[in-house]
Amino acid sequence: MAVNQVSRLLGKIRRAVYFFHRSTTAAHVLGQKQEMLHLPKHRLINDVATRWNSSYEMVERYLEQQSAVYSALSALKNKDIANLTDQEVRVAENVIEIMKPLKTVTTILSTETAPSVSMILPLKTMILKSMEQNDEDTPTVRELKHAIRENLQKRYSDAGLQDFLHKCTALDPRFKTLPHLDRASHLRIYEDLIIPEVLSRAENRSAIEELFSPLFKAGQSNQPDLKQQLKDEVSAYMAKECISIDSNPLAWWKDN
């Protein structure tokens, strides 16, 4: 994802961060200015090419410390490192605002305490919605939102993978209403949960069932149809209220 103005902004911030990292004198002066301006004595963050979140964190930290950075550069009389212009500061603030949902999503999906695969498609829908353009957007914001949408639209687009992810979402009692899908898709996904289970149970009948089923078939006429039984189970599941977003779906399944 390349947006020229944003790329130039990151390069400018990166040079300043590198300067304060490699010079112990500069780092000491920055610390003095942080103390004088009553700012947190946080170290500036350098980004890593393989981690987009680090670019977010670099810009966020730079904005937090920009008054100390400006003051330190003035005290050091360093003319090689340019301060951000007011326009660039506004762009940086816009970048942080736009990228914040992505940072939150990355944090959520990195958790190891609860299932996360069921959240992928709802989160993708939420991000795409947050990247819709509005009349107040600047040209740079529009370009950045467009780049994010174009990149994200292609993700998880394989039909087989989408089917798997939809089923995972349907089986998560936090998201089982599938609000990101139309009614027809909603019904199809729940139907697709039933059919494979019917076939699986039919294929895995025990040897004793296979042996005696022809002889005692008439005696089984009062037993409920397997497909209807599964439909009833799914209907009962769908009728239950969704649990809260911060609840543990595995604990819910254990209790239910």
TrEMBL record:
SUPFAM superfamilies: Ribonuclease H-like. InterPro entries: RNaseH-like_sf, ZnF_BED_domain_contain. This is Zinc finger BED domain-containing protein 1-like. It comes from Pogonophryne albipinna.
